[in-house]
Amino acid sequence: MQLKDYPDVLSVEQLAQVLGICKNSAYRLVNGRHIGCRRVGRKILIPRQCVQDYLNSARYNITQR
Questions:
Q1: Tens of pLDDT along the chain (65 residues)?
Q2: Label partner for 27 (CA 20 to 30 A): which of 4, 41, 44, 55?
Q3: Which helix (H) or strand (E) holds 43?
Q4: Residue 59, CA atoms < 13 Å, CB-side half-sphere
């Protein structure tokens, strides 16, 4: 499934699925403000564009060892 197949606003569970990581790691990305989100009450809403921006930024942060 590609990112464009997901809704415009994702949940943390969907974020974890998109990135292929566990739910706890997805929460770390959101709580560490690595991926933009909005909180509505106890619910965390992640715009699909923020996920795309995060993935695009990784392209420029690769360091050589």
A1: 688 899 999 999 999 999 999 999 999 999 999 999 999 999 999 999 999 999 988 777 666 55
A2: 4
A3: strand 43-47
A4: 6
Q: Is the dihedral of CA 28, 51, 37, 20 positive or negative?
A: negative
Q: Report residue 38: phi and psi, to 5°.
A: -130, 145
Residue 49: φ, ψ to 5°: -65, -35
- Taking the model in full, what pTM does it have? 0.84
Tell me the residue type at 45.
L
Instruction: Give all strands of the β-sheet with 38-40 in edge-to-edge order.
Output: 9-10, 43-47, 38-40
CATH class, domain 3-58, is: mainly alpha
